[in-house]
Request: fold
Amino acid sequence: MPDDETIPTVGPERRLQLDDVEWRRVSPKYLVVAIVGRIVSAVVIGAAAVFLWLVAGWGWIPWVLPVIGVGFLIAIIIEPRRVRSIGYALRADDLVFRRGIMFQRFVAVPYGRMQLVDITRGPVSRVLGLADLRLVTAAAASGVAIPGLPEADAEDLRDRLVSLAETRRAGL
Amino acid sequence: MRFADGAWHRLHPATPLLRGGLAFVAIAGFVIANLRERLVDFFFRVPQFGDDPIDEIVNHGFVGWALLGVLGVLLAIIAVFTVSWRMHTFRITDDLVEVRSGILLRTHRRARLDRIQGVSISRNLLARIFGAAKLDITVAGNDANVQLAYLGSAATDELRREILTLASGARREATEPVALDQDGAEHPDASASTGARLGGLVNRRVGEFLAPELDPDAAPPESVVRIPLLRLIGSVVLTGFTVVLVMFIIAIAIGLSQGEFWPVLVVLPVILGGGSFYIRRVSRQLRYTIAGTPDGVRVGYGLLSTNNDTLPPGRIHAIGVDQPLLWRPFGWWRVRVNTAGHASRDRQNRENTTVLPVGNGADVRAVLGLILPSFTDAEAQGIIESGMVSRGGDDGFTNAPRRAAWLRPFSWRRTGFREHGSIVLLRRGVLSRDLVVVPLARLQSVALEQGPVHRMLRLASVRMQTVSGPVAAALEVVPADTALALYRRTAADAVEWASVDTSHHWGAS
Reply:
């Protein structure tokens, strides 16, 4: 099949774009959840490194610590863009989800293929009134997790997806 | 007798024996034989006089008690097995199969017939001698199989036919119950006529035992694919395992020439293990047949223990045709499938995902024709042919561009895809070649991915996500524009084909 050149597809900076999709963003408050998550993992890794340095006597740890620190700092700095890159859209027949800047990922899940819609809330999310929505299909790889939805939206979305899945159920 | 009449039925009366009763008796006998002296010492606490234990029992007047004890244990075992057999019942209604089992812990398992992913019948050597068979109904999900072990052999085939008829969405035909000449469960008049009946029974058993694994009436002979014995042995020998083994043997030879003997001790177990590996693999795939029946593709194999799986239409989510490098000189291929039933994780049904262990190009085309009946015309034949052996270029596939050589230095010419109606074909690999066929009607989701290296080369990867299995339908190096277009088309087509697909209810008119 010849290349479908009629659709303008690859954006100016060689980034994959689906132009005709109106992406819905996750709540900006999710940025807090993401940054808290980063800080927690930074603290855990830092504590483990310091433990290895002081107790186990690994002398080279002080050289590695700044590298880890800078890595986490960069991760936290680009976190707002990463959160903005998360998007989802309910199209006529399927749900599309995207995330990632460096490693972009787009997934399209037909409504009829959804086996399960799951809502989870972490401790930080709960304080901010956010929830994560997870879609499960019969394919383990297609797991789509939309983080950082306001709780009411998440529940609406779940009910809507369940009813859509019910009307379009198509075997397995 | 018909099992699928909605009433509760019991399993074959020999079930307790077949399910491990014999093993239990054998083990108990072994233990008792070995520990006899100690047991006697333990129970009677008599000093050893050097006499036979039997004499001791006689001397102490324990004969009656000893016999009574043995009898009691035997009776208890038989009673437990009998009760367990009586409590284990199943029924098949118009849309459900239900199994109740267990004495203290009752389990009650129900499966919807229209969700059946496959029906498998296996008969191990012992079961074949007793004329029994095990029926496994595979349902989507982990550990969701419904197992009926054991049933009368002939009745099992009939039951499978009925289950598949019900699963196909066809209405149950209102015919007379077929008076099957069977020897299944619930046969009250076993003592009717002794001599002639016994002779007939033996004859039937021998007939069943010697009969070909595939019933000639079950499928039109031209649709049957078989594997010649030499090719089967060759395919098992020509694997990566053999290469490792040969390297080990060379290492030993070098070691011996240097006067070192210890490598022999290390490697001998490996070689012995290798031998048993080959024998197991070959014997498992002996008498392999694959055939198209009205109710799906039937794969059968086994010489002493036979096994056959029926995959109803519309249950296969992805098909992988691949050729390991060592098979290439012979032109052999292997066909594997992804199905939703996770019988593939089961120890005994490990080979369930392989529908053609080894075959030539014609066999592959025949098998693909059985699995995808809509994909058998001349054009489809050409597509399969070029998907399998073409070196790339302008052959109808959308292949990777030259810049993909940075990531796929050898295979980029051949790495591509082709859409044909409801089917997407992905082609990969140039040394060990690989063709993946995905029916869009079964596609679960589609993903498009791009990392930094891909972005520099203006490439992207497309993943057709199907249920898990040995076949991974992913194409790593697609031009970014093409990948986006393919992603869009596939996402839309998957919905469309899924909505018009009726193959999972193949019997409904």
